[in-house]
Design a protein that fits this description.
With 219 residues, this protein is an alpha+beta fold. It is built from six helices and nine strands. A hairpin with a 4-residue loop joins β3 and β4. α1 packs parallel to α5.
Length: 219
């Protein structure tokens, strides 16, 4: 079986996204790239129950290489991300808060420093019919310089070096949408300016933020 490890990872990621409430039924898709091939969820599959053998294998042109099920109707979106960015995995969800924000906003402002992991402000790609080249192009444009984008009246997309990171990015994006939602219910959210974002990056680098480290002797 081609790309056995990637198939396992795609199926596991799909099931986790469903368990986290970011996808429901067949509404969403996941892929992982390995060289000239891509492992991707099949169209119409219930992601909460997806098994590795159901995952389709396609080449970079979208031709089915191995599998008994047709790949997702959003295949062009995934392939477009791989063509344009140095990505190893792509996650597309219909997460409730992200989808809600995509229905009313032109962008998700950078209201928390954790959003810098997504590239800062998250753009909303203009609406286009699902599965079309127009949607794939709009999403790729919105992802320029970012690892996440919202899709107007549709959902969200994240890419990363691997599926674990892409799933974590999708969870972070949903959390950020929730923070923004609640803040807007109270008043106009403050947005981090360029100087504040730069300071966060410098502090994270200096302190090794996000990584564990042993306590120095004597502390």
């Amino acid at each position: 079986m081609k790309l056995a490890a990637e198939r396992e990872a795609v199926a596991a990621a799909a099931r986790r996204l469903a368990a986290e409430g970011l996808v429901i039924g067949p509404a969403g898709n996941v892929s992982a790239a390995a060289g000239a091939l891509v492992a991707v969820t099949p169209t119409g599959a219930r992601l909460a129950e997806l098994e590795p053998e159901e995952v389709a294998i396609v080449d970079r042109s979208g031709e089915l290489v191995e599998g008994t099920l047709a790949p997702t109707s959003e295949l062009a979106l995934h392939l477009g991300v791989y063509e344009r960015f140095d990505a190893g995995a792509v996650v597309h969800t219909h997460a409730p808060l992200a989808t809600a924000i995509s229905c009313v906003a032109d962008e998700l402002p950078c209201v928390h420093y954790s959003m810098l992991l997504l590239g800062g402000t998250v753009r909303v790609a203009p609406y286009a019919t699902f599965g079309t080249p127009e949607l794939a192009e709009a999403v790729a444009a919105a992802l320029d310089g970012r690892t996440a984008a919202l899709m107007a009246n549709h959902g969200s997309v994240n890419h990363a070096a691997d599926l674990d990171a892409a799933v974590e990015g999708a969870l972070l994006l949903e959390w950020a949408c929730g923070v923004y939602w609640h803040a807007r219910a109270i008043g106009e959210p403050r947005v981090l300016d360029e100087a504040q974002r730069t300071a966060v990056i410098a502090a994270a680098v200096e302190r090794g933020y996000g990584t564990t480290k042993p306590v120095e002797e004597g502390e």
